[in-house]
Amino acid sequence: MNTTYDVKLAQIQQRSSGGAITYVARWRVAGKERSKSFRTKGLANAFISDLRQATKAGEEFDVVTGLPVSMLESRSSGPSFLEFAQAYVLRRWNTSAARTRETDAYALLTLIPALVTDAPRRPSAEDLRDVLRTHALLPEKRRANLTAAQAAALSWLERASLPLSALGEAHVVRTALDAISVTFAGAPAGANTVRRKRAILHHLLEHAVEQKVFSSNPLNEIKWAAPKAVTVVDPRTVVNPAQARQLLDAVPKVGRKRGPRLRALFACIYYAALRPEEAADLRVKNSTLPETGWGLIILERARPQGTKRWTNSGETHESRSLKHRADKETREIPIPPALVAMLREHIAEYGTAKDGRIFRTGTGGTYSSSAYSYVWQEARKLALTPAQVASSLAARPYDLRHAAVSLWLNAGVPAPEVAKRAGHSVDVLLRVYAKCMDGQQEQINGKINDALNP
User: Fold this and answer.
1) Which CATH number fits domain 236-436: 1.10.443.10, 3.50.50.60, 3.30.70.100, 3.20.190.10?
2) pLDDT tens, position by position, for the chain (454 residues)?
3) Pfam families this protein is in (predicted)?
4) What is the 3-state secondary structure (H, E, C) of the chain?
5) pTM of the model
């Protein structure tokens, strides 16, 4: 523990925000500003009085938390942040999808190494993340045997991790926010990444409030603006129907086996607005494919890709309920004759997997995202101009889904029906695809002109 006798106490300040009055106790430890907010002036005075008594008694103050050693020791009976984070992950394990588990862990790989004391012989950042990823943040039966380096890193974390209660201090919460604002390499993190990690920290601290560690969530008392994230689809990524057909026609020309097997999968993303993981779990029993006319897909499950350590089965792909839907809830999507014909041809040529999946590798497995992304990039080179290939136009297979939804909206399909087919809520649909709804400006301008000139 790094301690000091360099302590200076300041006056209590009154603040008013949104009609609520708080009292802020301020002091300095080793030249660093410290502060703590209280709901009443009496509580703030009592806290400053405790600090003053500690200085008069010649007590050392901890540089990291800014508290007297005696006060820090009185708090140490509670869980450390590492211990609470481990319990948080395990508590959510059985009810979370593999990607959610991985997202939780990814945030904690940032937070746990940041919320520590300045203990000597700190392991490298890579070693700390490694032992968290492969051992500490997994259920006991899934943990790998520790190497000597991992054992040393975990032992250091267990000694150095701050008490969970330390997050009641504003400067500790700001340390956490600073940590999630940068990448592991120290560069500014993307807005979506920062917002996801902040949401996980907030949720973890809500659990701490439930367990009476805090009377209210400490994050709510910090004035910190999350970076603005892009939440709308960029129209430059959206292909028109002619470009979509060109891309789908180019897919079978990529390789001798993989490209031909993936054409109908990409077609499902474009013509039915399926998510790639939904197309991956599409079964014959869920598909009505008449010889002529429109068909129907009734989605029951999705097959997302995850890291093996986070999945229930220990496999890369596993079947789960649809995104944002209850277990066993389905989604019906009418599909046009063009897609019906492609699916019929695909099944006739390649058959199905033993479990009825329409799309499978030559050995019956599921295509990885890297495998179908490679085919897609090669198809773009065959179907698009060099300038288009260098652009964001249909840069990812998922952009075919954006193209489908944009096409439906611009064709005049009512938003509730589009949302139903795409698996969105109406408000999310209109917000995400706002910039892709073309062809309405002249009509709207005409209505405004008529109103101005009756």
Assistant:
1) 1.10.443.10
2) 678 999 999 989 888 765 667 788 899 999 988 888 776 787 788 888 889 988 998 989 988 778 888 777 555 557 899 999 999 999 999 888 888 999 999 999 999 999 998 888 899 999 999 999 999 999 988 887 888 889 999 999 998 999 999 999 889 999 999 999 999 999 989 999 999 999 999 999 999 999 988 989 999 988 888 787 767 888 899 999 999 999 999 999 998 889 999 999 999 999 999 999 999 999 999 999 999 999 999 999 999 888 888 888 888 888 888 877 777 889 999 999 999 999 999 999 999 999 999 999 988 999 999 999 999 999 999 999 999 999 999 999 999 999 999 999 888 899 999 999 999 888 888 888 877 765 455 555 666 677 777 6
3) Phage_integrase
4) CCEECCEEECCCEEEEECCEEEEEEEEEECCEEEEEEECCHHHHHHHHHHHHHHHHCCCCEECCCCCEHHHHHHHCCCCEHHHHHHHHHHHHHCCCCHHHHHHHHHHHHHHHHHCECCCCCCCCHHHHHHHHHHHHCCCHHHCCCCCHHHHHHHHHHHHHECEHHHHHCHHHHHHHHHHHCECCCCCECCHHHHHHHHHHHHHHHHHHHHCCCCCCCHHHHCCCCCCCCCCCCCHHHCCCHHHHHHHHHHHHHCCCCHHHHHHHHHHHHHHCCCCHHHHHCCEHHHEECCCCCCEEEEECEECCECCHHHCCCCCCECCEECCCCCCCCCEEEEECHHHHHHHHHHHHHHCCCCCCECCCCCCCCCCCHHHHHHHHHHHHHHHCCHHHHHCCCCCCCHHHHHHHHHHHHHCCCCHHHHHHHHCCCHHHHHHHCHHHCCCCHHHHHHHHHHHHCC
5) 0.71
